Amino acid sequence: MGTSAVIFQNKGFWCEDGTLESWLYLLANEIEKLDSIDPWLQRLYEHWRVQSSGVGMGVIHTGLDDHLDSREHIDQIIAIIKQAKVVLSEYGDTIPTDHLNNIDDSENYDFSDVPTEPFIIVGEHFEALLNGTLVVDTNYGEYGRRIQLTR
Predict the structure, then answer these.
(1) Average pLDDT over residues 19-48
(2) Structure pTM?
């Protein structure tokens, strides 16, 4: 499995592609639930839907710098991140197989229940990155090591 850098304002972290794709899918789902979607957020939603579809091993582009050009936009995405983490916590320790098979009803996959912890960790890194509080060990490069998806 490849890894991609999640970058915002020249800071970032490395994340496993499959986990990052699933995280972007979760964020896009939270955007879909909004009563109204501003044009900039609609563009970001569409971008995340494409990026979460398995199109780019090692080159998943979150588009944060392209779409988050104001504090208001950053704060709105942070609120969406927080809501996605609430949704994940409601599942408990795992996301059930039945839910995973509902993601794409064109095929049924032989999923096992998936731990929620890796997605919560990615969400925490996203939030810290957007808040400007992300700390990485730059001894391992500009964006540090790939984040650990377990505690």
Answers:
(1) 95
(2) 0.89
